[in-house]
Specification:
Blueprint lengths: L2 H16 L3 H13 L4 H5 L6 H31 L7
Length: 87
């Protein structure tokens, strides 16, 4: 499949597997693309498979969840310390 079709498939899988809104899935794929996550897929057409699209969709979603959880933990820790210091 083409590189563009592969990205579309990853986006579609995010909406189907994780019930993400289209805009959120598109944003996640675009952020990954900006971070050069998909560069190897552009260089190696053999990586553009349905199986790989599913793996990448899962990896992107899990990475997003990990970032959110880390941010929440940091916010809770900051809140428990009495909030940010004022200068």
């Amino acid at each position: 499949m083409t590189y563009e079709a592969f990205l579309d498939e990853v986006t579609t899988l995010l909406t189907e597997i994780y019930d993400m809104e289209d805009d959120a899935a598109i944003k996640l794929v675009m952020q990954a693309q900006d971070a050069e996550y998909f560069v190897i897929h552009d260089d190696k057409p053999e990586l553009r498979t349905l199986e790989q699209a599913r793996k990448d969709a899962v990896a992107l979603y899990k990475a997003k969840q990990n970032r959110v959880e880390t941010q929440q933990k940091q916010q809770r820790a900051q809140h428990q310390k009495g909030g940010p210091k004022k200068r």
